[in-house]
DNA sequence: CGAGCGATTGACGTATATCAAAGAGAGTGG
DNA sequence: CCACTCTCTTTGATATACGTCAATCGCTCG
């Protein structure tokens, strides 16, 4: 993590705010004020940030690392709904309504978060009403992604969905290297399976196929090298789902 | 549709507002003012309200009837994302961002709508900022439902999903009768199939099974009598998805 | 009453889940 | 530094649920 060269240690408080679009309309002074009411937390891999059915009263911003949000289905499987990483926020559900959390959130690696309490967030909204619009836009964005995901789930072919997932990961977690794009996978094979709603073994087999076709190269369990993006896009179905 | 007994024909303008929670915090005077900027439209069954990729600039409230919102998947199927009926609204996506519509909306039966133009809605937001919070709550609600739907899609068993869909319909479109709950189906078998992302024939077969088990009684193509709700809930998986 | 469209039923093939066993990494302790 | 173990992944064999194709049925509406 890079150090801010203007404000030193205190700057950590502002970093997370700079990462979320919600606050993009505010001035530096406003941000400084907001920074003072932020709480910080660290979690280790596997730790639970909060559980389905709990009533957490905070908006949480991921500052470093990544987390998964999942529900347990009636047949006992884990259905992953989101992978949140740097700059994403969650828990907003609980800031307005009386609702309890709809999912469990667990750290996929060491994670640092910034959070607002419900109260301080309400103050914030009162002081800066334009934030509400930003939140609506962000929620719209999220709904849009979910609609695409739902559409993808409706598509029968598992191939499409795996390819679409890889493209999605490539965008979020990929770095350009000479041979193509190196994707640092936030999820294990099992995690990907739980995200896609398929069996672990199926993910292995499909990735194996893609590797045989020369589209990807598996690189241990933690990363994948994407060699031929256009082939993958074709395999994901020409229209950009996910 | 029942006539309002206080204000006569003019009242139609307010009816739709009374149906949506967005405006629940406003006074009668405010509502009267708002009513003056509402536009009304009628559509016949099968008519398209707007198409995927269009750039409609209105918030639309369904006042009577129901509509489906769907995308066409890369393999040419129609994936239904929502069924909106009396009191639901859509098109809000386009009011803030520069986004185009993510889906096509089509009338499932004769439909009457109320709509705001983008401009008048912005005025409204400016005049009544509390509406923004209501919208956020409504979006949260919608996200919550989509998360459940995503979870259901992830569940392998089609039985679960069909049962969950019937329960959902029972709640929205059901009326109590001596033998149980009579569900007026908004969608045809094919529509249900496109909603669930399965084949038409599979829906038929599964409904046939449920009928053999005495859980439902099919009543033509337009309605279903739900005889044993608890059995259906069991079949949907005990936790309330959908 | 007849025509037409949607729904049902049946036969069949295939994709994916499941079960089972073997293989590869990553971390631990000798 | 190497062997051991634990966990995650891969691979294989088998079963099954669902999709597809095709034929028949039965409403609904003219």
UniProtKB/TrEMBL annotation, chains A, B:
Q: Which Pfam families match?
A: cNMP_binding, HTH_Crp_2
Q: Does the keyword DNA-binding apply?
A: yes
Give every Cyclic nucleotide-binding domain span: 22-142
Transmembrane parts of this sequence? none
What InterPro entries does the record tag this protein with? cNMP-bd_dom, cNMP-bd_dom_sf, Env_Response_Regulators, HTH_CRP, RmlC-like_jellyroll, Tscrpt_reg_HTH_Crp-type_CS, WH-like_DNA-bd_sf, WH_DNA-bd_sf
Q: Give the superkingdom in one word.
A: Bacteria
Matching entries from PROSITE patterns are given as: CNMP_BINDING_3, HTH_CRP_1, HTH_CRP_2
SUPFAM superfamilies annotated for this entry?
cAMP-binding domain-like (SSF51206), Winged helix' DNA-binding domain (SSF46785)
Q: Where is the HTH crp-type domain?
A: 156-230
Keywords for the protein's UniProt record, in alphabetical order: DNA-binding, Transcription, Transcription regulation
What is the recorded name of this protein?
Answer: Crp/Fnr family transcriptional regulator
Organism (species): Caproiciproducens galactitolivorans
């Amino acid at each position: 993590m890079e150090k801010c060269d203007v404000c030193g240690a205190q700057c950590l408080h502002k970093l997370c705010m700079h990462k979320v679009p919600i606050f993009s309309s505010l001035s530096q002074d406003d941000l400084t004020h907001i920074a003072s009411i932020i709480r910080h937390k660290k979690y280790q891999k596997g730790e639970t940030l909060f559980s389905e059915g709990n009533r957490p009263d905070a908006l949480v911003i991921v500052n470093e690392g990544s987390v998964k949000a999942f529900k347990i289905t009636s047949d006992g499987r884990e259905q992953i709904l989101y992978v949140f990483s740097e700059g994403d926020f969650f828990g907003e559900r609980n800031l307005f309504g009386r609702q309890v959390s709809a999912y469990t959130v667990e750290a996929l690696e060491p994670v640092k978060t910034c959070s607002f309490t419900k109260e301080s967030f309400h103050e914030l909204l009162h002081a800066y009403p334009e934030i509400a619009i930003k939140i609506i836009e962000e929620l719209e964005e999220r709904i849009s992604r979910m609609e695409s995901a739902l559409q993808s789930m409706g598509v029968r072919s598992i191939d499409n969905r795996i390819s679409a997932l890889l493209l999605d990961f490539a965008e979020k977690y990929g770095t350009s290297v000479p041979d193509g794009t190196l994707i640092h996978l936030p999820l294990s094979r099992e995690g990907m399976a739980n995200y896609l709603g398929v069996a672990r073994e199926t993910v292995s087999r499909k990735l194996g196929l893609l590797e045989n076709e020369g589209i990807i190269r598996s690189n241990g369990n933690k990363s994948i090298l994407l060699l031929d993006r256009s082939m993958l896009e074709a395999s994901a179905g020409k229209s950009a789902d996910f």
